Amino acid sequence: MHLIHWLMRFFPYWAIPAAFILGELALHFRRKKSAVEWFCWGMVLLLIILIVLWVAMRGDLHSDQWVKSAF
Fold first, then answer.
1. Rounded distance, CA 27 to CA 62, Å?
2. What separation in angstroms does the CA of 60 have from each of 10, 21, 37?
3. d(CA 25, CA 21)
4. Taking a C-beta distance cutoff of 8 angstroms, is the pair 6, 64 a contact?
5. Are 2 and 57 in contact (CB under 8 A)?
6. In 10 A of CB 51, how many CB atoms?
7. CB of 26 within 8 A of CB of 47?
8. Which of 50, 40, 56, 64 has its CA nearest to residue 14?
9. For residues 39 and 66, what is the distance between their CA atoms, to the nearest angstrom?
10. DSSP run (H or E) holding 28
11. In this structure, what DSSP letter does residue 1 have?
12. Beta carbons within 8 Å of 12's beta carbon, 6+ residues apart
């Protein structure tokens, strides 16, 4: 439970580097002509959308309440 609280509270701080890493993996798989490229780009897009929603919904203030209500 504490891990989920920590992940939600600091979401943009670990999701932005994860999106960059997934983008680099997508470029690598693009050079290899692998279908995994599309999965990586999809994950990058999902993380970007979630980061924008986290900021728009003021996740820095409300993330504790979201986790408590979900569990």
1. 35
2. 8, 24, 32
3. 6
4. no
5. no
6. 16
7. no
8. 50
9. 28
10. helix 11-31
11. -
12. 51, 54, 55, 59
Tokens (6 digits) for 18: 């994860």
Structure tokens at 68: 């408590």
**Looking at the whole model, is its pTM more than 0.85?**
no
Nearest to 17 by CA among 66, 51, 68: 51
- CA–CA dist 2, 12 (Å, integer): 17
Q: What is the mean pLDDT of the chain?
A: 89
Distance between CA atoms of residues 63 and 51, nearest Å? 13
Q: How do residues 17-33 score in pLDDT, each as one tens digit?
A: 999 999 999 999 999 99
Q: Which residue has the tokens 């999809």?
A: 42
pLDDT at 63 over 80: no
7: its two tokens: 């992940």
Maximum CA pair distance of the chain?
A: 44
